[in-house]
Amino acid sequence: MSKLLKEKIIKIEKLAPLLFRLTIQSEYIAKNAKPGQFVNIKCCDGIDALLRRPISICSVNREQGLFDIVFEVRGRGTEILSLKKPGDILDILGPLGKSFYAPKDNSKIAIVGGGIGVFPLLFLLKELRCAHKTAFLGFRSAENAVLLDEFKKESDSMYVTTDDGSLGSKGFVTDILEQKLSEESYDIIYSCGPVVMMKRVAEAAQKHEIKCQVSLEERMGCGIGACLVCVCKTRKDDGWEYSHICSDGTVFWSSEVIFD
Amino acid sequence: MVISEDMNIAVDIAGLKLKNPVIAASGTFGFGREYSQYIDLNQLGGISVKGLTLEPRQGNKPPRIAETPAGILNSVGLQNPGVHSFIENEIPYIRQFDTAIIANIAGNTVEDYCKMAEILDDEDIDAIELNVSCPNVKAGCVAFGNNPSGIYEITSQVRKFCSKPLIVKLTPNVGDIRETAKAAEEAGADALSLINTILGMAIDIHKRRPILANNMGGLSGPAVKPVAVRMVYEVCQTVKIPVIGMGGISNGDDAVEFLLAGASAVMVGTANFVNPRACIDVLDGIKSYMLKHKYKSIYDIIGALELNQ
User: Fold this and answer.
1) What are the backbone dihedrals phi and psi of residue A23, each rounded to the nearest 5 degrees, phi first?
2) CATH code assigned at B186
3) Alpha-carbon distance B131 to B128, whole Å?
4) Domains and their CATH numbers in chain A
5) Which residues of B are catalytic?
6) pLDDT digits 0-9 by tens, B276-304
7) Of A8, B118, B206, B256, which one is least surrounded by beta carbons within 10 A?
8) How many H helices and E strands in chain B?
9) Which of A224, A232, A246, A259 has the most B C-beta neighbours within 10 Å, making it the best mutation to test the interface with B?
10) Does pTM surpass 0.90?
11) What's the domain count of chain B?
């Protein structure tokens, strides 16, 4: 169950020119959040950036009652959020959305993340108890490839790509994924990032008959399934329907989703 | 909050009895379920449900929302499970709570509206709200709502099938809203609700394309409030039937503006998206205002506006 909360910011770190990590004190979120879920944050008290901003949870510290989010400054709301200070109180709705499927303990899993989409997958890596974890991470450039030490710590093998080749291999993360899939298999792949990337991940997973979950993103209104604006096409018996990303997802089985 | 026991906040809108004047606006509150974990639905005067059509509708392509200064543009396009699913699955749910159910209906043809009114007239709902002003669907709907003769035609036809209180929801996208208001009154509407969203557009300058996949959408939120207050005032000066005011109401003070302008009740819309407790906050704010100014009855403030001379 999600709650409307007022929680205190403990720490704010600038990870890259437009990337920030916020650490927030919240017993409730730390206790209840599952990987893949998000919080919907009111960035300002007034009406200048009216809507809340949905941001995925990047990790939780259950012992200390803390959770982290990583976000990119994209507009007015996230800009205001980036200027917050430790001690400031945030109006938070959460945790929201469906979480990733938890596989069996002996599973071999892979995560495939692109850009800002890598961070919710860190939470998943930290929480999953399974036999082998591989991380495929794609970034625009070395500058944006942050928290790699944490990804490395939480995974058994890790592959990094950048669009410009400034770190890891040059190219798309899906190139390396497809290459690896010809050599080895996984029980399940989890993906989050740009739609074009997730579409290719889904196609590769289907080709190799691997179960795959994707975490989708769309412009949201309420975050709780009431305003009906954040939709994606999903299959149903006699065709397709619009499902709501915030409440039916954000995590879907890739076989359910129709990527246009 | 503390309420003086003798404070009367119940309103009667042409037979639609509400225990307080705060209604959740259609399209912003689903069928109440989504909000039940944040607020006690028993506290609401009523819920105007998501706009219903005869058959289920998938709605428009995404993106369906764009944030604009102090507001949002939406182009949902009436995604809903259809009137039959509403009757089967949603009415029993909302009926668990002590709150009025207003069925908001939309269609492509006069026949669609009449058929839905006929079906719903036998169901356990408290009023019907005619949505003749949705800017996000191509056929019908808005075509009825943007001119007095269209409003007259559809209202008088639906009236024949509707014995429950009939509310006509007016669009602000007209030259003079008093004309469409009068047409609805003359055609037999029991009450009016206004304003629906204002047709707008937002452009992504880097892509040189509208943000909404549907190109245009309906503007709502605090940005529209002054326009809505003016229109509610004008309509209240023009018709004798009760008016339900809406447009950018986020707190009690906003609601009181509409009540002073003549509205008998208010609907809270976009604010629900930002604050799931918005309806309760609006209600508490109205009570605080009444306490502060020592009003005993909500009717002491309805239409109590005095113009500057």
Assistant:
1) -110, 125
2) 3.20.20.70
3) 9
4) 3-96 (2.40.30.10), 108-212 (3.40.50.80), 216-260 (2.10.240)
5) 134
6) 999 999 999 999 999 999 999 999 999 99
7) B206
8) 10, 16
9) A224
10) yes
11) 1
